[in-house]
Structures are given as C-alpha cells and as structure tokens.
Task: inverse folding
C-alpha cells in the first residue's frame, strides 16, 4: 500500500516541501495540498521513467549537497581568478573523457550536472554506449588529475547514494 | 544596521561575480571556454543576491521567506542543462571526432554517432 502510494518517497517529500515553499505561509490546508501534490505527481509521471529504483542510501544526499555547494563557491572564485588574471596564452583548455562506473541514468545525469556546476569543468556529451562522459576543462594543465578527482570526489559518493 | 551591512556586502559580491561572468564572455578565446564563465559565476552571483534577499526580508518584516531557496533549486537544475545544450550545439558546429579524446576504443560520442542503434 505504501509502495503503491509513494513509488518515489524522496521525490514525494521534495515535491511537498517545494509546494510548501511556494505557498510561503504555514497553514494546515497547504500541508494537505502539499501531500496531494507529493502523491499525484509521481503517479502521473511514472510512465515517463519506467524501471527506476529510487535511492539506495538517501541519507547520504545532504552531505553530498553540502560538498557540492562548497565546491561551487570555490569554483566561482577559481574561475573568476582565471578570467581576471590569467593571460590568454597561459590558458590550457582541455577535453577529457571520464569513463563511468555509474550505470543508472539518474546517477549519470546527477554527475553531469555536478561537473557543470563545479571547478572549471562543463560536461558536454555522453558516449554512444553511455559508459563515458565528455568533459571540457577551462584550465587543466594536468587533465588526468581532473579526471581522477571527478571519479574519487563525486562519482564514488554518487555510487553509494544510487547503486 | 548589522543586517544592512551584511546585505550590502552580499549585493556587492553578487554584482562582482555577475560582472566577472560577463567579462569572461568577452575575454575568453573560444566558444567552449566562454561557456565556463557564465555557468560558474552566474551561480554564485545569483546565489549571493538570493542570500541577501533572505537576510533582508526577515530583518525588515520579521517574516522568513522560502522563495529564494526555491529559486536556487531551480537555478541549479537548469544551469547545467543550458550549458549542456550550448556545448552540444557547439560540438555539432565545429568539433570533429578526431579533435576529441575517444570515449573507449571503437566507441564514439553520442553527438557524432551516425544514427540511433536500438538499445540492447
């Protein structure tokens, strides 16, 4: 019964919280509506994501979000310094291919989004078989180090959350 | 008073990063590197302005607002997608498979794939 009503418990919770945030004023009626949204939207959108399994370890999400937010702040300063002070000819842009250990599309999408938001990297493409991610670096004298950092810092954590 | 100082500092920081993002668009050498400046600096620039708003309204009216958190959430959901679309369009325009590192022996990036193969 609970599984039928809440096929994606985390999604339901997030939707309910987003609704309460949009309303922006506490009332019991809003809570009722938030719960209705949390139930209805996952059920209505279920046909668009067949075969998803939800999170394996959802309690690790907040730590991951905190890490990514900190990295975003650091990324902004790094990129700002490069834009302001690095001479054009000293800039070393590079493409790197990141082989993926993640297999679930949701996990790969999260990793791609994280890469785009963090230090000097933008994820650009996925390989035809979905097993590698193409990443563009703004300034990477050592592309292999960037690839290893993406794998150890983000991918291992996402693997724990999703798989 | 304290709130006003905090808000002012945050607005200046936000404006600074917004400016750097725009300056990067002008200064960086090619479309792929130009993509980096707005995807990064915009997030912290807008983020600082949002935090300023979250400090200002409770200090002024005594009411906490959640809208800023939602704006940040939607921004973080949409910024990577914009970057992805621009990068993809740029790959279609100017990058040949030989210029890019191969994903694996015998594999190609999805942008350069000839046609969709049926999924296994």
Result:
């Amino acid at each position: 019964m609970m599984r039928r009503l809440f096929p994606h418990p985390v999604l339901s919770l997030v939707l309910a919280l987003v609704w309460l945030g949009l309303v922006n004023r506490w009332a019991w009626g809003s809570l009722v509506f938030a719960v209705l949204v949390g139930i209805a939207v996952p059920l209505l959108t279920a046909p668009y994501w067949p075969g998803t399994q939800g999170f394996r370890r959802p309690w690790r999400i907040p730590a991951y979000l905190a890490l990514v937010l900190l990295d975003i702040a650091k990324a902004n300063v790094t990129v700002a310094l490069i834009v302001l002070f690095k001479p054009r000819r000293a800039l070393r842009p590079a493409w790197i291919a990141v082989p993926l250990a993640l297999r679930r599309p949701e996990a790969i999408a999260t990793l791609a989004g994280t890469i785009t938001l963090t230090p000097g990297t933008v994820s650009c493409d996925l390989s035809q078989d979905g097993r590698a991610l193409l990443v563009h670096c703004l300034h990477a004298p050592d592309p292999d180090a960037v690839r290893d950092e993406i794998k150890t810092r983000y991918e291992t954590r996402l693997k724990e959350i999703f798989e | 008073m304290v709130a006003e100082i905090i808000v002012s500092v945050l607005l200046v920081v936000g404006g600074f990063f917004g400016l750097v993002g725009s300056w990067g668009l002008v200064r960086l050498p090619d479309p792929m590197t130009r993509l980096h400046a707005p995807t990064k600096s915009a997030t912290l620039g807008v983020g600082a302005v949002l935090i300023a708003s979250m400090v200002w309204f409770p200090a002024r009216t005594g009411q906490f607002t959640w809208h800023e958190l939602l704006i940040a959430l939607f921004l973080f959901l949409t910024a990577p997608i914009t970057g992805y679309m621009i990068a993809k369009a740029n790959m279609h325009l100017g990058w040949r498979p030989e210029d890019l590192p191969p994903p694996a022996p015998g594999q190609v990036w999805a942008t350069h794939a000839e046609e969709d193969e049926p999924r296994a």
The first helix of chain A runs from residue 2 to 5.
